[in-house]
């Protein structure tokens, strides 16, 4: 996330006093030392404000953020409590590591914490216009979110796309079989799978129908997904946290890089939207019906928006090209990296726990029996698989939920000022030892007789968020994750590559960032003989 990236930048420049920023921060350090010698101590609650660790001038508490931000914040919560204040540059942040105050933020006071705020990167990618992920709680946000749910993310629409998931997962299985007994990069395969399924759902049809065309299409989509996601998570702006140092964004080349990234992403999005408009202008909503090379993927979100816009649906008649582009980009940012990460972390934990992998494989294979393929209707009978995935999401929660207070408010007995950003650290909530038995261990059995679900109905387990901004794509993502993992566990046995020790997986699983590029997961598949039909 951005905070972790800034933390590393701060540490780098502190180690290099030759740079202008390094000199500035070194001066700040000297000021801090004088302050400490004069008796300065960590700021604690003098009444109603949450306690706070001591901070450096200018940069605030950035130096206390570790590479694994979730774990670093959890460590601070052990010292300062489940709610504590930080200042990241000039931005006040309240870190929440407990389920009860998290629910107060997202449910009890959701009208106050209904906005996420924006970053320099998000403003560039979304052209400073409305979107779903970062827009405030306004009419546009409600309209477009409702549209995405009704046109793409509802249970009925998710079910209608079952053949898309089956085709794309079958393609992934074929690729793995062609590399049998050689290590495969599951991180990369999961990312490609998630992006292919999402784009077919959003666009309504594969762009290319022959092998060459489809390959070029997938490469374009992957490039779009990677560039847009990295722009949000990796491009760190001083302007966002220390406005007085915003000129450094130009000096470091960030402004130029962000502008180039936004232009590239916009051009690719315009390309795919142009194609949808051309198809609609030919009165062929959903694709070329004369093309028998692939099954029709339905109208697709973009086609539905264009069709409703053409019909003058209230609220959509004024949608601009930028608005439509932003909706597609929202789907990419919300639906690719997080879904791929859920599959990756679950497979990594299974590789670390071979007895659990064996148990879930036995369940999957007993359900499938002698059948030569898996259908999504089979998944409902795989209860232990569902527990395995829930446990993977508990141990590797994909996000820190951020909400900005519109007015002052009391949370957990503490008074938070207007403008403060509440960070809900799901990693800490989902590993709270007062709630979870042996929280650092991968124990899917804990979910067998529990009522936890993904709807955020309790205070201890909500991997997809809480309240009105809960992820609307829960069904879309989980159906994909369950089917993909069931296929890999049914058709393959999995081993660590030669020379890779279990300790390497321990290190991988200790990381909290969901990016598939940070630490790829490589495992060796041992194909099972395909049952005769």
From TrEMBL:
<protein>
    <recommendedName>
        <fullName>Cytochrome P450</fullName>
    </recommendedName>
</protein>
<keyword id="KW-0560">Oxidoreductase</keyword>
<feature type="transmembrane region" description="Helical">
    <location>
        <begin position="20"/>
        <end position="38"/>
    </location>
</feature>
<dbReference type="InterPro" id="IPR017972">
    <property type="entry name" value="Cyt_P450_CS"/>
</dbReference>
<dbReference type="GO" id="GO:0020037">
    <property type="term" value="F:heme binding"/>
</dbReference>
<keyword id="KW-0349">Heme</keyword>
<dbReference type="GO" id="GO:0004497">
    <property type="term" value="F:monooxygenase activity"/>
</dbReference>
<dbReference type="GO" id="GO:0016705">
    <property type="term" value="F:oxidoreductase activity, acting on paired donors, with incorporation or reduction of molecular oxygen"/>
</dbReference>
<keyword id="KW-0408">Iron</keyword>
<dbReference type="InterPro" id="IPR036396">
    <property type="entry name" value="Cyt_P450_sf"/>
</dbReference>
<keyword id="KW-0479">Metal-binding</keyword>
<keyword id="KW-1133">Transmembrane helix</keyword>
<keyword id="KW-0472">Membrane</keyword>
<dbReference type="GO" id="GO:0005506">
    <property type="term" value="F:iron ion binding"/>
</dbReference>
<keyword id="KW-0503">Monooxygenase</keyword>
<keyword id="KW-0812">Transmembrane</keyword>
<dbReference type="InterPro" id="IPR001128">
    <property type="entry name" value="Cyt_P450"/>
</dbReference>
<feature type="binding site" description="axial binding residue">
    <location>
        <position position="471"/>
    </location>
    <ligand>
        <name>heme</name>
    </ligand>
</feature>
<dbReference type="Pfam" id="PF00067">
    <property type="entry name" value="p450"/>
</dbReference>
<comment type="similarity">
    <text>Belongs to the cytochrome P450 family.</text>
</comment>
<dbReference type="InterPro" id="IPR002401">
    <property type="entry name" value="Cyt_P450_E_grp-I"/>
</dbReference>
